[in-house]
Specification:
alpha/beta; Rossmann fold; 4 domains
Length: 598
């Protein structure tokens, strides 16, 4: 059958076609849909799970691969940092079954802290890497990656980028059959990573690189296309941009498409360099292909002019596009830039839409309660990765730091130990608490830090699309399991003061924070209220314009997108956005916000 698939969906179908038995990961845009799709299409023989974090996911996958099963682990590029410990180590040990690590990079970045390029990690870890340029390639490459993983006895990385992850293309899906053969764990010291074994295996890893590079020279998705004297080297989604940029002028160029940037297919690249006079390199994100070509020129005495990121012909950050590539080629006198599409003259400009917490988001109420309770006191608010990072925006201004998953809890400790007089707060979401917050709490207790932990529990992993986590009591497949209680975890760790309150009950929420301010040591408040995106808009509020004084306090203090001011300088509530959370009604000094009649 032929299906219109997103890149991430294509990876899921490709893994299923390859006979994957275990698939795990942690949600992170732009990789999330892969595991969700696999859970949806699961014929019943694949174990699919949202692990508590990427490190745990990688270790589950490694354990499965030791038995001869094929295992897939998914994450975004910053998630690879979390998984780096087991991923680095397993290549020194080796595997029995195929192990594919699917990593989605985020040029821009669009929804990430960094623009890091996974191809560098692959080189550093000496793990072969495939770089797909379309959903169709993603479908076939994940199958090839499993085959190469088993052929060379180690993990393989499949790297994608945002535009491939979320673009769609028709893909031919074959008949899916269950994995063949039985799995078994063979006992032996080969699975134990002793220093001496690592020393020996590193030599093997280095020795196999030229062999894999030669093997990759014949890989079908590594291609030389055309016979022009001007060369273009590219990989990943940049290949699609190049195709569009040179459409109708293909005869002017010879294109080198690199689908396996490590180990690099040197012989294929050398034949390309020897037949071109000038080479332009287009790739996202870093000059990986470019550096390999420059190295080959120096190694083989080839005098080629190579233009790319190193000579600043190509931007060193952000995404590429067909238009950008066309402009670069035109600026260097290679060909004329294709005309850019012109928007209709009657179309208004696209409005600016700054990121903001949703209307009715309980995090807004939590931040506001802490802000009111801390009025007149000096406090520092350490944030974390999630929807609640948006608490830094006006008018709340409630996130002073944000670094990476779980760092708010530990950074607050650093602030305390530096002997500042400010009160350190640490905000963390429920999913992030399970992913990487618990260790930070243990660290705070052991090292006698003073901080107020605010767990923002909206009952889901909201920012990446409402995936499940251990506190929700269900798995990715919808199976009901015993939920892990955040309060019980905190109490078991040794946190003596734990309060739970609904942040939308404003007075009680403020009182809970004031109580925590009077306490010592590590104390915690769990602000629990469901994500606004999961609630139906059934009881919106409205403003009694006759009683509204136009003080704008609701707008100035909350910044809810459902609130605005009308032409008569009176507050207006957009019923299509309001979910009736009631926070604005509780702070209105004129009591002019009332319930909309059903």
């Amino acid at each position: 059958m032929k299906e219109l698939l997103m890149g991430n969906e294509a990876v899921a179908w490709g893994a299923l076609a390859a006979g994957v038995s275990v698939a795990c990961g942690y949600p992170g845009t732009p990789s999330t849909e892969t595991l969700e799709t696999l859970a949806k299409i699961n014929p019943g023989w694949v174990h699919v799970e949202w692990s508590v974090n990427e490190k745990s996911a990688a270790e589950v996958a490694v354990g499965a691969a030791y038995t001869g099963a094929r295992a897939l682990v998914t994450m975004k590029q910053v998630g690879l940092n979390v998984a780096a410990d087991p991923v680095m180590c397993v290549n020194y040990v080796g595997i029995k079954g195929g192990l594919v690590i699917y990593v989605a990079d985020d040029p821009g970045p669009i929804s990430s802290q960094t623009e890091q390029d996974t191809r560098h990690f692959a080189q550093y870890a000496r793990i072969p890497v495939f770089d797909c340029s379309s959903p169709e390639e993603a479908f076939y490459m994940v199958q090839d990656a499993f085959a190469y993983s088993e052929k060379y006895g180690g993990p393989v990385i499949l790297r994608s980028t945002t535009r491939v992850c979320h673009s769609c293309a028709p893909v031919e899906i074959p008949q899916i059959s269950p994995p063949k053969g039985e799995t078994a764990f063979e006992k032996g010291s080969q699975w134990v990573i002793f220093p001496r074994l690592s020393y020996i295996n590193k030599q093997k890893l280095v020795a196999r690189e030229p062999e894999i590079g030669r093997d990759f020279c014949g890989y079908p998705f590594n291609q030389r296309i055309g016979a022009g004297k001007t060369g273009i080297a590219c990989g990943g989604v940049s290949y699609a941009y190049v195709q569009e940029a040179i459409e109708g002028r293909e005869h002017l160029f010879q294109v080198l498409k690199i689908a396996t940037p490590y180990p690099f297919p040197e012989d294929l690249a050398l034949s390309f360099l020897k037949e071109t006079e000038r080479v332009f390199v287009f790739e996202e994100l870093d000059p990986v292909i470019e550096d390999e070509l420059i190295y080959l020129c120096g190694k083989n005495g080839i005098r080629a002019q190579i233009s790319g990121k190193r000579d600043h012909s190509v931007a060193v950050a952000g995404e590429l596009s067909a238009a950008a590539i066309g402009k670069i080629l035109s600026a260097h006198g290679v060909c004329e830039a294709p005309p850019e599409p012109q928007p209709g003259a009657d179309l208004p400009p696209v409005p600016t839409r700054p990121p903001v917490l949703c209307a009715g988001c309980p995090h807004r109420a939590s931040f506001y309660a802490v802000k009111k309770a801390c009025a007149g006191q000096s406090a520092i608010f350490c944030g974390d990765i999630g929807c609640y990072t948006l608490g830094n925006a006006p008018p709340l201004h409630m996130v002073d730091t944000c670094l990476c998953m779980g760092a708010g809890v530990t950074m607050a400790q650093g602030l305390f130990h530096s002997k500042i007089r400010d009160i350190p707060f640490a905000f963390i979401g429920d999913s992030t608490f399970f992913a990487s917050g618990i260790n930070g709490v243990v660290n705070a207790l052991t090292n006698q830090a003073q901080l107020i932990l605010i767990v923002l529990d909206n009952g889901t992993t909201a920012m990446t699309g409402n995936q499940s986590h251990p506190g929700m009591g269900k798995t990715i497949s919808g199976q009901k399991v015993a939920p892990v209680s955040i309060e019980k975890v905190l109490t078991a760790l040794g946190v003596e003061h734990v309060q739970t309150v609904d942040p939308l009950e404003h007075k009680q929420a403020v009182a809970a924070v004031k109580t925590a301010l009077r306490q010592e040591g590590v104390r915690a408040i769990v602000f629990r209220s469901p994500c606004a995106a999961l609630l139906k808009n059934t009881k919106p509020l409205k403003v009694d314009a006759g009683r509204c004084s136009g003080c704008r306090l609701c707008l100035r203090q909350l910044g809810c997108p459902a609130l605005s001011f009308g032409p008569e300088d009176r507050a207006v509530i957009d019923a299509s956005l309001c979910n009736g959370c009631g926070l604005c009604r509780q702070i209105c000094p004129q009591a002019c916000i009332i319930q909309e009649e059903s």
